[in-house]
Specification:
Elements: E1 6-17, E2 24-35, E3 39-44, H1 50-58, E4 65-70, E5 73-74, E6 82-85, H2 97-107, H3 112-125, H4 141-153, E7 159-163, H5 171-188, E8 191-195, H6 199-205, E9 208-213, E10 216-222, H7 234-252
Parallel strand pairs: 3-8, 3-9, 6-7, 7-8
Antiparallel strand pairs: 1-2, 1-4, 4-5, 9-10
The protein binds adenosine-5'-triphosphate.
The site of adenosine-5'-triphosphate (ATP) has 11 residues, from helix 1.
Length: 253
């Protein structure tokens, strides 16, 4: 079997917030390894530190102790190799769809033609070529999240960090976005780490789920259902059952 390369290695992360009596430990001794092309879900009760962990991986928040390595190199600040997709799309409202996708490419020093060609290709992949001249406010929530995906993918990041990326969408649009994300992943094989509260979303998308609770990673569940995954198959139901049991354990301690 081919040895998988680690895209991300995390060693001994610790994080506190607040001072004095208000000081609170949010993450304790978090270590993990994510392989190139792997899709990893972070699941756990509200307030257990998922977003804080994602923000540390992104370089938005500094840990009190521990290290993050991306492809073997210490990674402490944000950069184009690790892109972030938020729950709310965070597009620039005054720029057109096309300009939003081109935006990051300018800072990569790409020529005008390269910016336009790459943005057009990405908008085509997310099915929004015909909306390129529109402003974000003229799009639905699902469309805006597609633009956000196109904008991130245009930068060819090796690591995509997503904080409840589809939570604000209705159930049908969320399902469509799952299909879109998986087809983009089949094309680009990025490493993806996403936060979710939705066990079905975790089983649909992830290769592996980290169940967090009490500041720590409490358990890891490998999702074994074959892709493309169908919710009505025995293996999907079994993965769901195992994950729900691990989550229940995390809630009840
Ligand atoms: N900047 C901050 N300053 C102080 N406390 C913070 C800060 N960010 C997060 N916290 C606290 O850290 C804890 C973990 O928050 P975090 O947002 O990481 O949890 P979460 O698991 O992502 O929660 P949710 O599922 O509700 O989004 C919470 O108690 C939160 O109040």
């Amino acid at each position: 079997m081919k040895k998988e390369t680690a895209c991300l290695q995390v060693q001994g992360l610790e994080k506190h917030f607040g001072v004095g009596d208000q000081r609170q430990q949010v993450l304790q001794d978090i270590s993990l390894e994510v392989h190139q092309g792997e899709i990893l879900a972070l699941l756990g009760a509200s307030g257990c530190g998922k977003t804080t962990l994602l923000n540390i991986l992104a370089g938005f928040v500094s840990p009190d102790a521990g290290s993050v390595y991306v492809q073997g190199r210490l990674s402490t600040v944000p950069g184009p190799h690790k892109a972030v997709v938020f729950q709310e799309d965070a597009l620039f409202p005054w720029l057109s769809v096309m300009e939003n996708v081109e935006f990051g490419l300018k800072f990569q020093g790409r020529t005008r033609k390269e910016q336009r060609d790459t943005a057009l290709k990405m908008l085509g992949l997310v099915g929004l070529e015909d909306k390129q001249a529109m402003l974000p406010a003229q799009l639905s929530g699902g469309m805006r999240q597609r633009v956000a995906l196109a904008r991130v993918l245009a930068l060819s990041p090796m690591l995509m960090l997503m904080d409840e990326p589809f939570a604000a969408l209705d159930a049908l649009t969320r399902e469509e976005m799952h299909g879109l994300l998986l087809s983009l992943h089949a094309e680009f094989s990025q490493t993806i780490i996403f936060v979710t509260h939705d066990v079905i979303e975790a089983v649909t998308l992830a290769d592996r789920v980290l169940v967090m609770g009490g500041r720590k990673v409490l358990s890891t569940v490998d999702i074994s259902a074959l892709r493309p995954r169908k919710p009505d198959t025995d293996q999907f139901m079994e993965d769901l059952r195992i994950l729900r049991a691990a989550l229940k354990q995390a809630y009840t301690g």
